[in-house]
Amino acid sequence: MKQMLLQQKYPVFHLEIPKEETSCQSVDDVIAALQARIDAEPNVAEIAIFDHFAHTSAFGGDIHPEIVAAKNLVFCFGYKLPDPVMLAVRPRSIGVSDMGNRFVISFLEAPMEIATTRMEAWCKEIADLAPAA
User: Fold this and answer.
1) Overall pTM surpassing 0.90 (yes/no)
2) pLDDT by position in tens, the chain (length 133)
3) Using only C-alpha atoms, what is the Rg of the chain?
4) Where are the domains of the chain?
5) Which one of 20, 58, 99, 117 is most buried, by most CB atoms within 10 A?
6) Interatomic CA distance for residues 70 and 96, integer angstroms
7) What is the pLDDT of residue 133?
8) InterPro entries per the record (predicted)?
9) How far apart are CA 85 and CA 90, in angstroms?
10) Closest CA to 57 of 66, 69, 72
């Protein structure tokens, strides 16, 4: 997993996984694997799945030519709500893109370290799923 500063201001984690290195073969497979991790966490609630590719395609928006599918899994860690301004950086989202021969999984660093650590672990676990024989 790599960390970068997107557009010189957004701390983003991203991981590229070749399809031959995981049992996941579609964005929906990756989303389902991440949903299982969310379901196993008592303080995390799934909110929605947003099909970013379909949304952008519907109005003829610009999509990178290698992207064949792209969805966001939206969820929230419910550990605490110490300040109303914290709502500006919630909920969390993990983006999953199908680039034909690989997946790109990405998320914005959370202001709460435990959330970032969990999301990083969940993404790395996708890479550890044994490919189909």
Assistant:
1) yes
2) 888 888 888 899 999 999 999 999 999 999 999 999 999 999 999 999 999 999 999 999 999 999 999 999 999 998 888 889 988 888 999 999 999 999 999 999 998 899 999 999 999 999 887 775 5
3) 15
4) 2-128
5) 99
6) 6
7) 55
8) DUF6858
9) 10
10) 69
Helices then strands, counting H and E runs in the chain, come out as 3, 6
In sequence order, what DSSP letters do the residues of 12-56 get, joined into one string? EEEEEEEGGGSS--SHHHHHHHHHHHHHT-TTEEEEEEEEHHHHH
Query: Six-digit token pair at 121?
Result: 């672990």
Confidence (pLDDT) at 127: 85
C-alpha pair distances (Å), 9 with each of 12, 90, 94, 106 = 9, 17, 18, 15
**C-alpha separations of 74 from 1, 20, 45, 46 in Å:** 20, 26, 9, 6
